[in-house]
Design a protein that fits this description.
Number of strands: 104
Distance between the termini: 188 Å
Strand content: 35-45%
Shape: extended
Radius of gyration: 62 Å
Largest sheet: 6 strands, antiparallel
Length: about 1450
């Protein structure tokens, strides 16, 4: 105990001395810094007057919204900054509040920039939106708050207090605020968008209560702007930086304020430079601001960038842009090195923004972020602005009072040089007191020291501002300056001259900072502190740079100057060694770098561990107790070297003095405390130790009674550990209980429940006790948090549960790896594990069955970097088990691999293959034919090195490169080939390729014997001939045929290698086909067109190509089966072109028909009725008319109803068109047939004049006239003759006869002139009437004995007359004239008159002839025509052209 206290006290003394030294150094540095800052502050305000401090109003504290009860008082207050002091006006719903209008209702107060509005005794009408408007000459700002007044249903105590200020607990509620899900140190780049957010938990959660959420950057309150957007969703605060610039770098703090206090959270944001537009260009300047604004003059300041692009910055260019435009104007022609520049030539009353660009010899940087807008106007004029109560519009209006005439202004006052650099000198003064009411302007004059020669500087335009910058002064010379006032009355007296001022930089570049000391902080950060620059004036801050040792590459750690002498550099690589350097910066420039720091390794700083916790008793006997505890949550960055246990006796509840239980540290988290007293009570505490020292002790344990345990069941297991956490599984380890009970422990049970679930939710993981002290728990729910406990059992039963584990979420951590098994090229089996989250102190611990491997006889562990390998020496059955690897000093990085007997067997097979490797082949040895019939033997290896070799074997004999064999071996692709020009019978046998690559070998063989070899040889010879054939004109595609949709057959072939002299001849059956319009040759294709193919086109077709290079022939056999196949294809086109079956009616019956686009006589069709072929008869016939195929059903009956089909036979499946002739379809067709049939009967039986009469008969007087015509009709018609439309009767002069009911004759025995006139014959029966007319003309002349007769055909055309020559009577008369007839209306009752359309249909039907009777009909017509010629009568004996069966007697009468 004494030795341990001595060790502890020594460490504490050393630590306290270090702390004292640090505090002394810090206090000294702070005093120096404070004095320097006060001095610089005083000097600055001596040079600057109050006008330079003008800025617009800003709400430092905004009014907060309130919800109050009726009759309570409420107060809104805010704090406003700005110069001149802003005027604050309060508004209710955008209406200004007037306290005088409502006495006692409102009370307004303004003290020390704190403004308040108090509303007395609120009523419901006070619920509104209120806002405070702060306004001065620089602008206007508003802040809003809402008041909600709630009505209370019960009694209200009118003496309720007014709202109090500050964080207090009202109405008995104390809020607890927790900021979780925090943002960490963040890195961004210029131009990007970044969001910072935290989840805020406030307890108790009130729906209507809203905390005050504020964001700060470097302890400066942030306000919403175009650069920063803030959002509060009720439980999450978010700050969005819309467009990052280096000005946004800094320490960001979220502050959440409730009535019970506030909570804060902070993290640093780093902003790196955007990529330069020109390589090597510097970074953009930052923090551009405007100072000392006047009518035509503004000073622009900025901060230099940390990155110079590798070359010194030559200077800066300042650009200005008038507000409302986008046009940027460069203000300086040459770059200025000083980080401050006076801009002149501004237009009074207009607002401007500014930006700055840096330049080095490589090029120009990107422009900085633009400054805030600033107006060019005299500060004194702002105070005299009119309309102070008018709202701010963004436009500045400068007004003047009426000038007084004739007053010359006096001398300017307090002229001084406020700033002097080698580029410019800035003068400032005060206007004269007696200047009058007219605006004054100024002339500036200079004089070289030692002379009295004053020169006016601004000769052309006087300046309006009491500020002026002089440029183009000679560096090193001394000047004096004075100023004159002027107005319309004249120029006043000059001011007192200034003291001599030497042109040059008055502000020196700061000296280099002193010693830089880095200190370990975290795994990715280092704390860097340094000595401040000595005698530095107007110091802006410091830039810190870091470099990995040995790299010689320096990177900036901050891009925005820091004012302190201590900075935490983040974003470093864990385990790397860095050095640091610092340089100071002010407006004059950047200092030299400080000396480099000592190297420091980036890793977490070491500290003493936190106290252990969870002390429990594992076993108790009469004088000793076994304790167990849990490892500290924080081990201090170093391994825990051991634990120290203390104990004390507790008597009557009063604890005694602590005593040490162990002098030497124990490494296990269990220890037996001895020398205790039986039946006494004790408390214990434990301390952990590491290389940094001994930590503070744990809290005292519960009070335990020292008495011997006698229970039969075992004690609780202990030291529960969780490994290999994944989204659906984890591994739980434990140690057996120290107290075994009466019998040894024979198993364990594991319990599980959700962390937030009640105690009743515990459930068992294993139903059967496990003998192992570990278990893999599966089927977890991803994202759920679990806790576990273990119970031991023996023969007596199950003992007490262990302590519950810490809650564990079932989540696979990013970067988690698994153990990978590997077999290398030498066949060595190894287990490999990689960890991405290692620390410098991390170690790989390999275990078998979760017991650390200490025996190296079977396994060797090799570790390099973040990878570890466990190598099996001689793997065997004894190596079967679960292998796991744990990485210390990580967040539980671990994994396991189960080596089962099957897996071991598989790995051993792979190992054997690697020890005795085989060259893998992508393809085995194969043969193929090349151009010209060459034979190629080849195979492809998957991978082969440049040292690979191949032996070519044929029938066990090696062959080599020569005339017969050509070998190639492409080692890049692994393709091995052997090429032979041709094959001979001697080449029959076995071919083998033998491969060798180092110790890897392989071979592949191919057997070519028997039919296989003969087929290959024949194919090779064929390919060889084909190659020679293609050297001349040849067929690319041999002769074939194509059937077009129009059923036209085209024979065609594709040819190649043609030239002009090449001839192409077509042959059919050995006879050349002469060239005509059916032959064609286009685009290398020869064609022969057969328009309407028939049997005569069958034959053998041949095409012959021939020229001086050779000859090629192609033949197409279109006979027998070839012609049949062709016709089947034609029939297929015809069938597909057929239309659906339709039905029509005729006077004979019902007709079914279909049309095809083309009909061929060879087409075979079959008609079906009810799926059976139709047997044709006189009643059912089929035929073809043109492209119409029809089926005629004569005299149909109901038995003919059913399904009809026509089937086209094309040699394949055929095509069938069907029609259902039944129901309404049959009824309609049958009714139409009946109608047509009746009409046909009426037409056939009506009275008609079958043989006609001539139109005109001319006859000489005295001759006899005889005319005969045929009459038809059923019943026999009545015949009536008319002359000049009057009926005539038969007498001796005019004899009228009607014989046999068929022949009507008209005879005049001797004509005279009185017989001239128009004659008509009228026939009539019940079906109709018809007439025939002729005109008789009698001429005077010598009488001629004889009779004039005329012979007419069936249609009444005169075929032979009295003057027809006999030779013409032997031939048929063509072109005869149709006799005109007159028809009366048909008188047939019960039969409708036929329409013209129906007549045409009937005519179509009558003209149609059966296919099989076509030739017979033609023959009969020809024969009838010949008979007609033979039967021609002589002129003396004319007869009718169509003689019936019973020919009438010819009437010949003679007229004398």
């Amino acid at each position: 105990m004494a030795r341990r206290d001595l060790f502890t006290s020594g460490l504490e003394m050393e630590r306290s001395e270090q702390i004292s030294r640090r505090e002394a150094m810090r206090e000294s540095a702070e005093r120096i810094s404070l004095n320097k800052r006060i001095h610089e502050h005083e000097e600055h305000f001596k040079r600057m007057n109050e006008d330079s401090l003008m800025h617009p109003p800003e709400f430092v504290i905004k009014p907060r919204s309130h919800t109050v009860w009726e009759k309570q008082c409420v107060r809104l207050h805010c704090t406003v900054s700005g110069w001149p002091d802003p005027r604050v006006v309060w508004y209710k719903n955008n209406v200004a509040i007037d306290p005088l209008a409502n006495p006692g209702k409102y009370k307004l107060e303004s003290r020390y920039n704190v403004h308040s509005l108090e509303i007395n005794r609120c009523d419901f009408d006070d619920t509104a939106q209120y806002h405070a408007s702060a306004m001065n000459s620089k602008g206007e700002q508003s802040a809003f708050a809402s008041i909600v007044v709630k009505r209370f249903k019960g009694d209200v105590d009118e003496s309720l207090p007014s709202p109090r200020q500050g964080p207090v607990s009202e109405y008995g509620i104390t809020f607890q605020t927790h900021i979780v899900d925090q943002f960490g140190v963040s890195f961004g780049r210029e131009g990007e968008t970044m969001s910072l957010g935290c989840t805020v938990i406030i307890y108790p959660a009130l729906n209507r209560y809203q905390p005050e959420v504020e964001w700060y950057r470097d302890d400066v309150l942030l306000s919403p702007s175009k650069w920063t957007h803030m959002h509060w969703s009720g439980d999450r605060a978010t700050l969005t930086l819309t467009h990052l610039n280096k000005e946004d770098e800094g320490l960001y703090t979220l502050r959440v304020t409730t009535k019970s206090g506030y909570e804060t959270y902070s993290a640093y944001v780093f902003v790196r430079d955007a990529d330069a537009e020109v390589e090597g260009a510097p970074g953009a300047p930052l923090d551009v601001r405007c100072l000392d604004a006047n009518k035509d003059y503004i000073i622009v300041t900025w901060k230099q960038p940390a990155v110079d692009g590798g070359n010194s910055i030559l200077g800066y260019f300042v650009d200005r842009c008038e507000v409302g435009t986008t046009h940027w104007i460069q203000c300086n022609d040459t770059p200025v090195k000083f980080a401050r520049f006076p801009v002149t030539g501004l237009v009074e009353g207009r607002s401007y923004t500014f930006r700055v660009r840096a330049v080095n010899k490589s090029g120009m940087s990107r422009p900085s972020r633009v400054s805030e807008p600033v107006a060019a106007m005299d500060p004194a004029d702002r105070a005299r602005m009119r309309g102070t109560s008018a709202p701010w519009t963004g436009q500045i209006i400068v007004t003047e009072e009426e000038p007084a005439e004739g007053v010359v202004p006096g001398r300017p006052l307090e002229l001084q040089v406020t700033e002097a650099t080698k580029n410019y000198v800035v003068l400032s003064w005060k206007p004269p007191g007696e200047k009058g009411l007219e605006g004054v302007m100024y002339y500036v004059e200079k004089c070289v020291s030692g002379t009295d020669n004053w020169q006016r500087v601004n000769t052309e335009i006087p300046v309006k501002s009491p500020r002026f910058a002089l440029f183009d002064l000679a560096e090193g010379k001394s000047y004096s300056f004075r100023v004159r006032c002027c107005n319309s009355a004249g120029v006043g007296e000059p001011s007192d001259p200034t003291e001599a001022t030497t042109v040059g930089d008055k502000l020196d570049i700061p000296s280099a900072p002193g010693k830089v000391v880095p200190t370990r902080n975290t795994d990715t950060s280092v704390v860097v502190s340094w000595e401040a620059s000595r005698d530095a004036k107007e110091l802006v801050g410091y830039y810190i740079e870091s470099s990995v040792v040995g790299s010689n590459v320096w990177e900036p750690c901050n891009n925005k100057p820091v004012n302190a002498t201590r900075f935490i550099c983040h974003g470093l690589m864990t385990g790397e060694t860095y050095v640091f350097r610092v340089r100071a910066v002010n407006a004059a420039g950047l200092s030299q770098f400080s000396p480099e720091s000592e190297p420091v390794e980036v890793k977490a700083a070491i500290a003493s561990p936190a106290p252990p916790y969870g002390i429990t008793v594992l076993e108790c006997v009469r004088d000793s107790m076994v304790l167990a505890w849990k490892q500290p949550n924080f081990i201090g960055g170093a391994d825990i070297t051991g634990y120290f246990v203390d104990y004390r006796e507790v008597i009557d509840g009063v604890p005694g003095k602590w005593h040490e239980a162990n002098i030497r540290a124990v490494s296990e988290r269990a220890y037996r405390v001895s020398d205790l007293k039986e039946n006494k009570k004790y408390q214990f505490q434990v301390r952990a130790a590491n290389m940094a020292g001994v930590g503070i002790p744990s809290l005292p344990s519960n009070t335990f009674l020292c008495e011997e345990w006698t229970i039969a069941v075992p004690g609780p297991p202990h030291d529960l550990q969780i490994r290999e956490v994944r989204s659906d599984s984890l591994v739980l380890l434990w140690k057996p209980p120290v107290y075994q009970g009466r019998d040894p422990v024979n198993g364990f049970y594991v319990d599980i429940k959700e962390a937030e679930a009640p105690e009743e939710a515990w459930r068992g993981v294993n139903n059967k006790a496990t003998e192992k002290s570990f278990i893999k728990i599966k089927n977890l729910k991803e994202g759920e948090t679990y806790v576990f406990r273990v119970r031991a059992q023996n023969k007596a039963g199950v003992g007490n549960t262990s302590d519950v584990t810490e809650p564990v979420p079932a989540v696979t951590k990013p970067g988690s790896k698994e153990i990978v098994v590997d077999v290398d090229d030498d066949g060595i089996i190894s287990l490999n594990f990689e960890c991405c989250d290692m620390t410098p102190d991390s170690k790989f611990v390999w275990s078998k069955n979760y017991e650390e491997i200490s025996d190296a006889s079977r396994l060797t562990v090799e570790t390099k970097g973040n990878k570890s390998k466990a190598v099996f020496k001689t793997p065997g059955e004894e190596d079967v088990g679960i292998y796991s690897c744990l990485v210390t000093h990580t967040d539980g990085a671990s994994a396991s691999y189960t080596l089962s007997e099957e897996e071991l067997k598989r790995l051993l097979e792979i190992s054997h293959d690697h020890k005795f490797p085989i060259i893998p082949l992508k393809s085995e040895l194969a043969v193929e034919l090349l151009e010209k019939g060459k034979v190629r033997f080849w195979l492809q290896a998957e991978k082969i090195s440049p040292n690979g070799k191949v032996d070519y074997i044929f029938n066990d004999n090696a062959v080599s490169q020569g005339e017969k064999y050509k070998m190639n071996f492409d080692k890049n692709t692994g393709v091995i080939e052997m090429i032979m020009e041709s094959l001979t019978p001697a080449d029959e046998g076995t071919y083998t390729f033998q491969l060798q690559d180092g110790k890897a070998t392989n071979q592949s063989s191919l057997v070519l014997i028997g039919d296989v070899f003969k087929q290959l040889q024949q194919e090779s010879e064929f390919q060889r001939k084909e190659w020679f054939r293609k050297q001349g004109p040849h067929f690319i595609e041999y002769l074939g045929y194509e059937v077009t949709p129009e059923c036209c057959v085209i024979l065609k072939c594709k040819v190649g290698n043609m030239k002009k002299e090449t001839s192409a001849l077509w042959y059919k059956d050995g006879h050349e086909i002469k060239s005509d319009e059916h032959l064609g040759f286009t685009e290398g294709v020869l064609k022969l067109e057969i328009a309407q193919i028939s049997k005569k086109d069958a034959g053998v077709y041949e095409v012959v190509l021939k020229d001086d290079r050779g000859k090629d022939t192609s033949t197409l056999n279109l006979t027998d089966q070839g012609f049949k196949d062709l016709m089947n294809e034609v029939f297929s086109f015809i069938a597909n072109s057929s239309t659906p079956l339709k039905v029509t009616s005729t006077d004979e019956g019902i007709r079914l028909y279909t049309f095809v686009s083309y009909y061929n006589d060879l087409l075979q069709v079959t008609w079906h009725y009810k799926d059976s072929a139709i047997a044709f008869s006189d009643r059912i016939k089929s035929g073809v008319v043109g492209e119409q195929l029809w089926l005629q059903i004569s005299e149909p009956t109901e038995k003919d109803m059913g399904k009809y089909a026509i089937e086209f036979n094309d040699g394949k499946g055929g095509l069938r068109r069907t029609l259902e002739l039944s129901g309404q379809a049959f009824d309609d067709a049958f009714a139409e047939f009946q109608r047509l049939k009746a009409a046909a009967i009426a037409e056939r039986n009506r009275a008609r004049v079958a043989g006609g009469l001539p139109d005109v008969v001319t006859i000489q007087e005295g001759k006899a006239l005889n005319l005969t015509c045929n009459i038809s009709g059923n019943p026999v018609p009545e015949v009536t003759w008319l002359k000049n439309d009057r009926e005539i009767t038969s007498d001796e002069h005019c004899i009228l006869k009607f014989e046999s009911g068929k022949f009507a004759s008209f005879t005049i025995t001797g004509v005279n002139t009185s017989d001239s006139g128009k004659y008509s014959i009228l026939v009539k029966n019940k079906y109709g009437t018809e007439s025939g007319d002729f005109t008789l003309e009698v001429t005077e002349g010598t009488p001629d004995l004889g009779v004039t007769s005329y012979w007419t055909d069936a249609e009444g055309n005169v075929m032979f007359g009295p003057n027809t020559p006999k030779e013409k009577m032997k031939t048929a008369v063509a072109g005869s004239k149709m006799q005109k007839r007159k028809e009366s209306v048909t008188k047939t009752p019960n039969v409708e008159k036929l329409e013209s359309k129906e007549e045409s249909k009937s005519k179509e039907v009558k003209e149609g002839k059966k296919l099989e009777n076509t030739e017979n009909t033609a023959a009969e017509e020809q024969k009838a025509s010949e008979d007609l010629i033979e039967q021609q009568p002589t002129a003396d004996q004319p007869e009718a052209s169509e003689q019936p069966t019973e020919e009438p007697e010819t009437q010949n009468e003679t007229t004398e």
